[in-house]
Amino acid sequence: MKLPESQVAVLNAASATDETPIDRLATEADLKPETATQAVFELRDESLLDVTERESVEYELTEEGRAYVEADLPETRLYRAAVDAGADEDPVQMGQVIGAADLDGPEVDIALANYGRKGYGDIESGELAADPDADAGADPEAAALETLAGGEGADGIDDEVLDQLVSRNLLDRNERTVRTVTLTDAGVTALMEGVETAETVDRLTPEMLTSGAWQDVAFTEYNVEADAPEVQGGKTHVLRQTAERVKDVLVGMGFQEMEGPHADADFWINDCLFMPQDHPARTHWDRFALDVPPIADLPDELVDNVERAHRAGVGEDGDGYHSPWSEDFARAIALRGHTTSLSMRYLSGTEVGELDPPQRYFSVEKVYRNDTLDATHLLEFFQIEGWVMAENLSVRDLMGTFVEFYEQFGITDIQFKPHYNPYTEPSFELFGKHPTTGELIEIGNSGMFRDEVLEPLGVEHDVMAWGLALERLAMLTTGAEDIRDLHGTLADLDFLRGAEVTY
Ligand SMILES: N[C@@H](Cc1ccccc1)C(=O)O
């Protein structure tokens, strides 16, 4: 049989009767560990070797553990000092013993806690008693530390003692996979019949590069059909891919991107949107309030206009909420529950100045809501915010924009449902059909901003606007049935790894 050089070396170094760890094989075969490992697995695939994997546990003293090997455990020192002070006969003042035991800082608590646990004596109303029969010299924890420090393994040591030392942070437990190798019958037969080094070499090794041997060898041809280990390269997360695609599509439709704070004044998040201050969404149940100083820089005139709209409404027939409005509440900071706060900032002229129609703006940004987690809800998600300002906009324009947008993702059957928002009239919710379950899922909310929103902002033209859910769009495009499969701690790695790469 002819085999590549490294495989021949490994085969010769392996035994049919002894399990040889790969490290030792590598040394004996004079190969780098990674070259030996690779050869081992190739020989295993040829059924010439058996590989056994075993988890091995090794213990290593922490710095604190090593210190106690030198200086003894704090509780042992305390016990000795207690006995020296006569506490084995009558209880002694604790302070006196601690001083004599030379314990400092955290060692005092450690000593006291373990003193009781190990039955060295009682501690009561500031006095320490020592049990005359306790044998602090034969402490199993101290003995175990000593053994391990001496380089002997943990084999003879009781598991409970080891656990205790790990939980006291005196030992680190390291788990390692050890692979050992034995020759199979086929391997033995092959060796007996004679194994030669193949003239052709199947791989360039570090050894060949350093020795220069690569110049003289003939390489085997590639077998492109051979099994190869799967390589999981890094790639853009599906959700990020979807976000990038959304941005491209919107930019392609003539939109510009908005940016702004995740933590913002309620003024921008809610008041500008004609959301009454006693609206349920503004209570502490739903709002992630932040304990930080309120916003300082709000345009005075705008604050007055917004307050007036809340109190008295807008226009001749306008009516306000007849409910309290406090500027302090408007200035308080919370995590934004929607990115419509950005739309308000931009429409007010404070971000990029006064805007003349037509204008189109969008963002794809995180929002935060105190929702209950389920298959379609996360506490943090991405909203695709957007608005168009133009003269004479109608609901047709709004619907047409969505049809055009979702078509770019192959979604051609969106449905609309009349809805209510305090800030838009009319309002529509959008629904899409899940590709596998056929269920209708809500994918967005939209509408035409009402005068109560636009007039205080100083906007004199129609504005249609929306907030779409990026995760829901990703559910429709990927077929994920649970948002938590896409991201978060429960994300389905196979699904993410298998997701198509798009450019
Ligand atoms: N803010 C709305 C979306 C929306 C934005 C703008 C206009 C209408 C609706 C939401 O979070 O659901």
TrEMBL record:
GO terms for biological process, alphabetical: phenylalanyl-tRNA aminoacylation
Residues of the Aminoacyl-transfer RNA synthetases class-II family profile domain: 246-491
Residues at which L-phenylalanine binds: T340, Q383, I384, E385, Y423, F449
Cofactor info, note text: Binds 2 magnesium ions per tetramer.
Coiled-coil features, chain-numbered ranges: none
Transmembrane segments: none
Location relative to the cell: Cytoplasm
Broad EC category: ligase
PROSITE patterns: AA_TRNA_LIGASE_II (PS50862)
Gene3D superfamilies membership: Bira Bifunctional Protein, Domain 2 (3.30.930.10), Winged helix-like DNA-binding domain superfamily/Winged helix DNA-binding domain (1.10.10.10)
One cellular component (GO) term of this entry: cytoplasm
Classification via SUPFAM superfamilies: Class II aaRS and biotin synthetases, Winged helix' DNA-binding domain
Catalyzed reaction equations: tRNA(Phe) + L-phenylalanine + ATP = L-phenylalanyl-tRNA(Phe) + AMP + diphosphate + H(+)
Binding of Mg(2+), residues: E425
The keyword Transmembrane helix is assigned to this record: no
Keywords: Aminoacyl-tRNA synthetase, ATP-binding, Cytoplasm, Ligase, Magnesium, Metal-binding, Nucleotide-binding, Protein biosynthesis
Cofactor: Mg(2+)
EC numbers for this chain: 6.1.1.20
GO terms assigned for molecular function: ATP binding; magnesium ion binding; phenylalanine-tRNA ligase activity; tRNA binding
Top-level taxon: Archaea
Oligomer and partners: Tetramer of two alpha and two beta subunits.
Family membership noted in the UniProt record: Belongs to the class-II aminoacyl-tRNA synthetase family. Phe-tRNA synthetase alpha subunit type 2 subfamily.
Protein name as catalogued: Phenylalanine--tRNA ligase alpha subunit
Organism: Halobellus clavatus
